[in-house]
Every structure is written in structure tokens, then in C-alpha cells.
């Protein structure tokens, strides 16, 4: 365990230092979420009850989907440039590589999430501290799994990278639209609601909204936690196996 934590810290430090040297890039990544928050969120008005309590968790899930995918893109760049091959000849734990790289993306997400929440407070968002902390913890688990899956996709796409762009773009937006992040699925046609029910992100979105509303005992919290943990387990398993087979 000590070796695993040390290797995870090493990878995390390696990944995070470039972000510290370029903080403007972190703010630039928030451009789209902020536009959705202030423009789209304002359009909802009272259409979905307390719109900010409903919409802010959805924005955070959207950020959690896009952040880990960008981590996979970073790995793809390293594979094309040969940096990852030099890292693979080291005795670093392969699972620690996955977790360390994913945690960098999740730390960036947490910083951005806190800023989003702070900016939403004057708009009418009510802060339930325990629920927000539990929601962010769930997003971290979800994001680690997504990050690991994006690494698998990056490795399978090297050296060209075309597969990464095709798969990531063809999956990302359907997952968003069919999870109720932007609009409630309750008013959608029956076939869309059925597709939403088989989308694991839907359960995480529902759990986030319950947690951010302070409803820690809502059944959706359990379903969302199970979905997040399942994605994390599958992602780490596939990522670890792919790395052990070599890149």
C-alpha cells in the first residue's frame, strides 16, 4: 500500500505541475460550463422547480464527463510523442499510474466545481454542506473510472488517434443528453425515457440532485453510488489490464 500511494503521488505530481504553470488554461476550460450555468440555467426559470438546485449538479456532472476525457487526450499525446513509453519501463505500479493521472483531472474538477458553486450562490443556489461534500466525493469516484476508460481508449487509438476522437465524440453527447443533465427526461417521449433508464449517468445525475438538495437518504443516492462505483471498478480493471499488456 505504501508503494502504491508513493507511485500515485509521483504520477499525480508529474501530471499536475504543468497545470500550475498555466492556470489560465484551467479558467479557459470553465468557459462552456459557465455559459451553460448563467445562460441556459437562467432560461429554465421555475420550469423545473428550484432551477439552480436542479441545474448546478447537472453542470458538475457535465464537467466530470468532459474532464476525464481530456485526460485521455493528454495520454494520447504522450503515446504519440513517446513519453509514455519511457514511463512504462519504470517500476511504477500500473494501477497507480491510472489513479494518479485520473486524480489530477479530478482535482482540477473539484477546484472548478467549488468556483461554480460559489458563483451560483448569489443566483439562488442553496448550499447543503453535507450533501455537497457527498456529491463531490461521488463525482471523484465516477471521474476516476471515466479517466481510466479514456486511457484505455487512448492506448487503443495510438498512434493515429482517430479512434479516440470518433468514439469520445459519438459517446459523450448521447450520454449527456440521455441523462437529463440539461432538460428533465420526465417530459421526454417514452423511447427516450427508456434509453435514459439504461444510461448509468442518469442515476449519477439523479443522485447528485438529491445530494445537493440535502436529501442524503433518497434512494437515488444509493443507485447513483452503485453506478459510480461500478464504472470505477470496470475502468480501473480494464485500464490496469491494458497497461500491463504494454502500449
Structural commentary:
- The protein has 247 residues and is mainly α.
- α4 runs antiparallel to α6, α6 crosses α7 and α7 runs antiparallel to α10.
- 80% of the residues lie in helices and 0% in strands.
Gross morphology is globular
Distance between the termini: 25 Å
Give the structural class: mainly alpha
Strand fraction equals: under 5%
What is Rg?
18 Å
Tally of contiguous helical segments: 11
Major sheet: none
Helix amount, in percent? over 70%
Mean pLDDT: 79
What's the count of strands?
Answer: 0
Order of helices and strands: HHHHHHHHHHH
List unreliable stretches of 5+ residues: none
SSE topology:
Layout: H1 2-21, H2 23-29, H3 31-44, H4 51-81, H5 83-88, H6 94-120, H7 129-157, H8 162-177, H9 190-197, H10 200-212, H11 219-244
Helix pairs in contact: 1-6, 3-4, 4-6, 4-7, 4-8, 4-10, 6-7, 6-11, 7-8, 7-10, 7-11, 10-11
Explain briefly what this protein structure is.
The protein has helices at residues 2-21, 23-29, 31-44, 51-81, 83-88, 94-120, 129-157, 162-177, 190-197, 200-212, 219-244. With 247 residues, it is mainly alpha-helical.
Tags for this model:
247 residues, mainly alpha
Amino acid at each position: 500500500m505504501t508503494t502504491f500511494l508513493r507511485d500515485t503521488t509521483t504520477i499525480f505530481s508529474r501530471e499536475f505541475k504543468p497545470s500550475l504553470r498555466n492556470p489560465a488554461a484551467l479558467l479557459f476550460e470553465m468557459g462552456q460550463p459557465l455559459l451553460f450555468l448563467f445562460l441556459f440555467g437562467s432560461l429554465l426559470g421555475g420550469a423545473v422547480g428550484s432551477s439552480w438546485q436542479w441545474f448546478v449538479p447537472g453542470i458538475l456532472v457535465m464537467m466530470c464527463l468532459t474532464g476525464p476525457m481530456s485526460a485521455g487526450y493528454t495520454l494520447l499525446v504522450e503515446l504519440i510523442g513517446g513519453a509514455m513509453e519511457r514511463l512504462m519501463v519504470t517500476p511504477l505500479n500500473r494501477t497507480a499510474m491510472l489513479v494518479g493521472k485520473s486524480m489530477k483531472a479530478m482535482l482540477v474538477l473539484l477546484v472548478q466545481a467549488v468556483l461554480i458553486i460559489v458563483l451560483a450562490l448569489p443566483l439562488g443556489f442553496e448550499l447543503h454542506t453535507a450533501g455537497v461534500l457527498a456529491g463531490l466525493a461521488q463525482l471523484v469516484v465516477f471521474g476516476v473510472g471515466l479517466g481510466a476508460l479514456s486511457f484505455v481508449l487512448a492506448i487503443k487509438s495510438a498512434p493515429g488517434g482517430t479512434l479516440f476522437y470518433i468514439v469520445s465524440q459519438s459517446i459523450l453527447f448521447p450520454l449527456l443528453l440521455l441523462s437529463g443533465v440539461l432538460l428533465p427526461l420526465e417530459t421526454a417521449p417514452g423511447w427516450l425515457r427508456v434509453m435514459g433508464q439504461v444510461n448509468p449517468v442518469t442515476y449519477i445525475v439523479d443522485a447528485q440532485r438529491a445530494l445537493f438538495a440535502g436529501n442524503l437518504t433518497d434512494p437515488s443516492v444509493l443507485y447513483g453510488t452503485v453506478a459510480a462505483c461500478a464504472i470505477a471498478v470496470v475502468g480501473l480493471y480494464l485500464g490496469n489490464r491494458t497497461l500491463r499488456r504494454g502500449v
